[in-house]
Amino acid sequence: AAPLVVAVSTSISAKKGLLIRNRADFEGARNLDAVVFDKTGTLTLGEFGVTDVVSAGDYDEEEVLQLAAAIEQNSEHPIATGIVNSAKAKGLSIGKVSGFESITGKGIQGMVDGRKVNVVSPGYVNSNGLDYNSEQFNRLSEEGKTVVFVLVEEQLAGMVALADIVRDTAKEAVAALKEKGIHSIMLTGDNQKVADWVAKQVGIDEVYAEVLPNDKAQQIQRIKDSGRRVAMTGDGVNDAPALATADLGIAIGAGTDVAMETADVILVRSNPNDVVALIDLSKKTYRKLV
Ligand code: ADP
Ligand code: MG
């Protein structure tokens, strides 16, 4: 009867929006110790809005947002969408950019009116020894806002703070996992303070922040090395190696092609509760098998 059970579970899973690409790893979902979630777009909506613009030096706030928006036109990161939309909503004209480049996990750069402009992470600014108002930065971060820095010719022009929205379903999913004795872990490239703030809202047990894209898979390996069976849930290009390293790789929502090609299971909806549904279905399906 075994093949029949599996066939039935396949049609049930399809109806629930769970696409199973790797049966053996799906079977292992019933024995997970921990589920790792990417933050942006998975635990949160990934829809950033600009909340604060702080200028530095001779720049004013409009200029800071304008320069940031010019560069961000070329990026598909949720931070970029938030900055461009906000500049447009304020009616600011957005300049042309040449020589656009992304600095993986740290930000982007390009030329605007003959000047080199960067929009980058706190990590980039710190490792380049640039001075900024750290009191203001800390206050914004502790409010759960993602702060990026705008540099012109490697000099600080200002910072832009953005807020994302935490998914209610993320909170529900983490609570349901806890009830099953499964640990929830966050893995993000964002700042530690922002990560801690979101983790607190959602009820996450463990947080790994400021993790560069290339180090996400290593972090998953370390969790495995601690003797735990772990699933990784994410949507981005950056998440693909981590999805491949995990015992179970789960691509969520309208994720990138790379994430979907790498995952063992694809969740069609962007709903973290479907991670719980998938674990339940694995238990139901394989309990019936010898
Ligand atoms: P996440 O794990 O949240 O998806 P990423 O690895 O994509 O994070 O990015 C990590 C950090 O790099 C961001 O929090 C931001 O500080 C910086 N960053 C990445 N892309 C951009 C961008 N287009 N504009 C500004 N900053 C960026
Ligand atoms: Mg991401």
Detailed description of the structure:
Belongs to the cation transport ATPase (P-type) (TC 3.A.3) family. Type IB subfamily. It comes from Planococcus koreensis. This is P-type Cu(+) transporter. With 290 residues, this protein is of the alpha/beta class. The protein has 2 domains: 166 residues, 3-Layer(aba) Sandwich (Rossmann fold); 115 residues, Calcium-transporting ATPase, cytoplasmic domain N (3-Layer(aba) Sandwich). Helix content is 43%, strand content 24%. A 7-stranded mixed sheet has the order 1-13-12-11-2-9-10, sandwiched between helices. Strands 3-8-7-6-5-4 form a 6-stranded antiparallel sheet. The longest helix is centred in the C-terminal third of the chain and has 15 residues. The radius of gyration is 21 Å and the shape is elongated. The model has no long low-confidence stretch (mean pLDDT 92).
